[in-house]
């Protein structure tokens, strides 16, 4: 009979993390998400989506860069 060596803190933490990740994946697959975030698109994003254009297409139609449009849609400008 062999004596099991005690696990060091790093091994225990890695094992705990693996167990938590596995449990979380199982919960997600079962539709048991603990937190759901819903983001409502702002007016710029709504306008783009209502005409059915991609960001690149909408930016070109407005003669602005795609990056500028992204900033507007994310509320940073």
Explain how this protein is built:
With 77 residues, the protein is mainly alpha-helical. The chain has a domain at 43-73. Helix content is 60%, strand content 0%. The protein contains 4 helices and no strands. Helix 3 (55-62) packs across helix 4 (66-73). The mean pLDDT is 87.
Radius of gyration: 24 Å
- The percentage of residues in β strands lies in under 5%
Low-pLDDT runs of 5+ residues are: none
Helicity, as a percent range? 55-70%
In whole angstroms, the N-to-C terminal distance is: 69 Å
Number of continuous helical runs: 4
List the helices and strands and how they pair.
Elements: H1 9-29, H2 43-51, H3 55-62, H4 66-73
Quick structural gist:
By secondary structure, the chain is mostly helical. It is built from 4 helices and no strands.
Task: Record keyword descriptors for this entry.
single chain, 4 helices, 77 residues, mainly alpha
């Amino acid at each position: 009979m062999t004596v099991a060596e005690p696990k060091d803190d790093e091994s225990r933490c890695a094992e705990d993390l693996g167990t938590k990740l596995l449990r979380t994946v199982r919960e997600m697959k079962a539709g048991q998400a603990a937190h759901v975030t819903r983001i409502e698109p702002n007016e710029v994003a709504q306008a783009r989506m209502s005409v059915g254009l991609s960001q690149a297409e909408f930016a070109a139609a407005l003669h602005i860069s795609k990056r500028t449009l992204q900033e507007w849609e994310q509320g940073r400008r």
